[in-house]
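Handoff note, outgoing to incoming analyst
You'll be picking up this chain. Sequence as last confirmed:
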Amino acid sequence: MMLVIPLKGRGAAGAFIVGILAIGALLGRLVLFNFIVFSLSDSRSPVSTGALDSAAGYFPSSARLNARLAESRISDPDRDLGLAAQEIERAAFLSPHDYRLQVVLASIKESQRDLTAAEKAMREAASLAPSNIDVRWRLANLLLRESKITDSLVEFRSAVAGDQSLMPATLDLVWRVTGGDLANLQSVAPDTPAASLSVATFLLKHAQMAEAVRLFEGIDPQARRAAPASSDFINTMIKSGELEQARLLWIGLVSGSGAAVVGPQAKPIVWNGGFESDPITGLAQFDWNLGESEYATIGIDTGSAHQGSRSLRIDFAGRETTRLDGEIKQGLVLSPGRRYKLEFYVKTQNLVTTDGPRLALRCDGEPGWMPAGTAIAAGTGDWRKMELDFVVPRKFGTTGPPGNPLINGGINTLHKGTGQAPARGEAARSVWQTDGDAVAVTIKLIRIPKFSYDEPTRGTIWLDDFNIVEVD
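Most recent structure output, in case you need it:
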C-alpha cells in the first residue's frame, strides 16, 4: 500500500517538509528524554545525588526522576529529608496512582517524626493498592508505633490473611506490645484452621497450656487432623513434658473424635496393639513405627493373625550377627511407681537363631532402666502368649538434655519431619526426674548380639495383640 499526498506549489512542499522535520525533532527529543530518565532513574545504575538533581532540573515533569532523587537524598550520609519530602511529593503529584511513592513519603515523614503525615501517606498507599500485603504490613506496624492498637490489629489481620508466613512475627509482636493480651492475639488471626493452629502453638510455647488446648480443640476436627501443624502442636506438648495431655489430644486426632479423649477411651496403653490400622502420616507420635533393616523384612501380614485380620511379620534375611534395635517401636505414657504387665502373642516358622529377639522397654533419660522379656524361642510354633512384668521407677536420673523417646530418640525417628530434638545445651526437663504423673517410655523389639559374631538368624515370626495392663 502506498500513500500519495498531492502538493501544489513550492510553498506547500516546503511546509510539508518543515512539518516532517518538526515531528522528527519532537520524537527525537521524546526518545532522548525517555532514555535519559530511564537511565538515571534505574536503581541499578550508580548515579550521584548531584547528577540526579541536575537532571531533575532539566526534566522537572518526570515522576520517576523525582522519586529516584528523593530516594538518593534519603540514603546520603548528609541527607536532607525536607528536600526529599518535597521531591517525593512532586513525584506523587505527577504520578498520583503509584502507591510506591506514598510508601516512600510515609517513610520520610516517619523519619521526620511526623507520624500523622506518615499515617496519611500509608493509608493513601493502602487505598491505591488494597491487596498489597507489604503495604498492609507497613501500615500495621506504623499504627502500632502510634499506639493505635485497635487499628493496627485490623491491618495485621489483613496482612496475615494474605501471607500466612507473617503469622509468627505478628503473634510475637502483638504479644509483646499488648502485654500478653489473649483477645488481641486472637484478633489478628484469620478464621482459618491454619491460623488458629499457629495461635494455639504460640500459646503453648508461652506456657498458656489451658488456652492453647481450648483453641486447639475448637478447630474443625477434619481440618485439624489434615494440618501438618497439628503434629507440631503435639510435639511441642511432648517437649514441654505434657505427656498425658499430648496423648489424649493425639487419640482425639487419630480416632476422629476431635476433642481430647478421657476415661476408658484413653486406653489401651499400647495403641493399635493388633496392627489393624495404618499410622496416619505425620501423626505417629504414639503409634507403631516400622523401619527398615538390613537383617530382616518388616511389614504387615493380612494372611495371619491371632485375632482380627492383621499382624506384624518379620522375615529374617539369614545374615550373620543379626541385630534389631528400634526398627519396631511405639511410644508409651506410663505412671511412675506403677507395676505393669505387657502381654502379646507370637507365632514362629522355621526360626533358626542362637538367641531370639525379645520385647524391651527403654527410657533414653535413664539408660540403666531397661527391662526386657524372654527371648522368642527358635523353631516352629502356633500363636502363644508371652508376658513381661515391670515397674516404672518413681524417679529417673539424668545428666543432660532429655533424650525424649517420643521425639529425638524414639518413635518419630523413622517419620521425617515429625520430630524435633532439643536444642544443644537445653536444660533437662522434669520428664525424667519427676514425681509427676507421667513418664515417656518406648517399647521395641530388640536383638542385640552378645558377641562380635554369631550365626545367621533365619525364619519368620509374627507378633500380634499387644496389651499393657496396670497390676494392683
